[in-house]
Amino acid sequence: MEEALLLAEEAGRAGEVPVGAVVVIGDEVAGRGRNRMLEKGDPRAHAEMEAIDAARAGSANGRLDGGTLVVTLEPCPLCAGAIVLTRLSRVVFGAWDSRLGAAGSRFDVLGAGILGDVRVRPEVLQDRCSSLLSDWFRERRR
């Protein structure tokens, strides 16, 4: 989560919503990502998607079987779909997203058992992840 937080801070400095993510396979970080929606002009350029794409680049079949996604904010439905389709086994996240969260807050795409079996561990370094987001949005409103 520390590395995901560093990526989130980088996103915030670049004017993006500060969300960072890493994909871990075994003991190795296989992919890193941060929000790049404004930079790319693409509403799909979420931190999770960037990290998944980077990890998939090293995969022969595009799957990330047994991998873990670590992200500072609860994944949205778009990212939850990518998590399921790439066969990540686990998601660890920091802050809940009551507006678009798809890992148990607003929706439960990952835990519904319909699309796959993804284990979810919420609230890892929750205070730091939440503060990073709320401080960033507070500063933007000024």
Structure description:
By secondary structure, the protein is α/β, with parallel strands linked by helices. It contains five helices and five strands. It has helices at 2-13, 37-40, 47-56, 77-85, 126-141; strands at 20-25, 28-34, 68-73, 90-95, 119-121. It has a five-stranded mixed sheet. A hairpin with a 2-residue loop joins strand 1 and strand 2. It is globular, with a radius of gyration of 14 Å. It starts with a helix and ends with a helix.
Low-confidence stretches: none
Largest sheet: 5 strands, mixed
The rounded Rg comes to: 14 Å
Number of helical segments with 4 or more residues:
5
Structure keywords:
alpha/beta, 142 residues, globular, five-stranded mixed sheet
Kindly summarize this structure in a few lines.
With 142 residues, the protein is of the alpha/beta class. The protein has helices spanning 2-13, 37-40, 47-56, 77-85, 126-141, and strands at residues 20-25, 28-34, 68-73, 90-95, 119-121.
